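Dissemination and training. As part of the outreach component of the grant, students in the summer workshop were shown how a complex can be specified as a set of sequence lines and then modelled as a single object. The example used during the hands-on session is reproduced here so that future cohorts can follow it. Participants entered these lines:
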Amino acid sequence: MSARRADRARDLRIIAGYALRETVRRRVLVVVGILTLAFLALYAYGSAQAFDEVSRFGAAPAGVDIQEEVLTGSTLLGLAMFVTLFLGTVLAVFVTLNAVRGDAERGLLQPLVVRPVGRSTLLLARFLAAGALCVAYVCAVYAAAVALTGATGGYWPDNLAFGAVALSAAVIVVVALALLGTTLLSSTANGIAIFMIFGAGLAAGLIGQIGSALDSSSLERISSIASWALPFEALYQDGLHALTENVRGATGVIVQLGPFGGAQDAGPLLYPYVLAYLVVVAVVANAIFRRADL
Amino acid sequence: MPDALLATALRKTYRAAVALDGVDLRVGAGELVGLLGPNGAGKSTLTKIACGLVRPTSGHVEVLGHPCASLPARARTGYLAELFRFPGWATADEVLLLHQRLARSSGGAAERARLLGLVELTTAAERRVEAMSKGMQQRLGIAQALIGDPGLVLLDEPTSALDPAGRRTVRQLLEGLRERGTAVLLNSHLLSEVELVCDRVVIVDGGRTIAEGAPADLVTAGGVEIETAGGPRRFAQAGREDIPELIAGLVEEGERIYGARVVAGSLEDAYLDLVRGAKP
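and obtained this result:
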């Protein structure tokens, strides 16, 4: 490894560590923690109630192939995945929304930028710190939701790890978009913009569901384009699909209709596409930051 | 030895606004130069270009022989911004440690202790920034700018939040830097401070250099003041050699004379004259 690379790796570690320390001291982390605990407590209670009530329905009518436990568990877990992505997005937005413009306006950024550290290193370090924190968060919440679903109803989905990977990738896309936003917008404007983009992604998922139900190719095309433009939505749908792809019969058909946009197999190109998408976002953010007057 | 800072035909525009309009500036090695000018004159923009925070529209800037904003230039530059903040959760020692690591300084704990001592913050080493007064934070900012023994230190209003004792500390610190051969560009509105410590002064207005030289060379005589029975009378254009004739004339007019003195001019007077004179 050349000396320059070693210096860059060292700078990345220093700034990422600094960014993480700064993040864990923010009140927003306490707020997210409280919201998460509240969600998990409600989820545990709701799951127990749901499994209990479904078990009282008795067997499905003859000829109808419904697996109540799978149907209930996968629906609940799909909902939990959505909430996990939402909370992960909240965290991603709040830990990155002022990383460049906001910190520059407050005077926190200038003392760091004048040091012999490249601006691209600084941006990458912030991305790595925020990404690591958000991935750890969504994986922990997802694992807790899976464990609660299994403990309360005995449901354990297939492809557990794939759900975690999809959520992690989705939240990394949000982190990247928020960092791109922060090179252009002030904190408040960036926060609003990213939440609106997140909402637009969800709306695209719903439009796709409606299009599928109405057999409207136009709506499905709109949804598909939006999913590629905002791939966190496609990743969420793909993760949801992976959890339930082995469920067959009527149960399988019903569980594919996940909450806030159904489960969709995005195909093998999704992850290479997401990687390329992240590279493009990084290049654009870096170009803007390098030219920015602070 | 290359100049600490050399700006040539430096121009910076923000859309239609011209912040710098062809400024030339030189800070020699080990020289302490004061940068003066009214608000909006372009002083902070010039300082920010020198440390790589702002990109010039045209012109050329070198720091210690390296293009400004390059990594070698930044490695040898210390900077204190006019508006800056350190994370409130960090202690003074942690702030300096972070900047030591980023500046690749090998000074360790000894350097941190020395710098905190220089700005009289030794007892506040473990105090969090959020628990510090504005003046203490400014002194910490100065200590941060001196990490790694930079060859050029850019200080943008370093004494704006300091009390008189703090200003004296900074003045002594600047004199110490000069003795060690560190070049300093001091951007300040406190003309008396600049006059006391700077080797040379550059006055900018409207994005242009309107005057430069040693403070003593810029200062003009303030005339002659003669105390009469009717109160002091000022002869702004007169010098020491004019006093006998002035007194004779006044006596002839029937005035009673109680004293006479040559009024020394100040940098402030010279600055105000120059800035007013530069206005269209």
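Chain A has a mean pLDDT of 87. Students were then asked to discuss how this feature might be tested experimentally.
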